[in-house]
Automatic annotation (TrEMBL):
It holds the Pfam family zf-C3HC3H_KANSL2. This is KANSL2 isoform 6. Residues 28-68 form the KANL2-like probable zinc-finger domain. GO terms for cellular component: nucleus. It is found in: Nucleus. It comes from the Eukaryota. Keywords: Nucleus. InterPro entries: Znf_KANL2-like (IPR025927).
Amino acid sequence: MNRIRIHVLPTNRGRITPVPRSQEPLSCAFTHRPCSHPRLEGQEFCIKHILEDKNAPFKQCSYISTKNG
């Protein structure tokens, strides 16, 4: 007589449970005055103050406009 094997899958079906993210993003780390803008992902500063971060992969543009000096 043949035996039938039944495999029971775990409840998560082999998927990794995602870590829940916090609902409120961290605020910008700008120190000269309070800034309530959210930080850029993986950075300490918001888009407005990102050039203050010396470790950020961005730098000031050297373009000078004739209209604003």
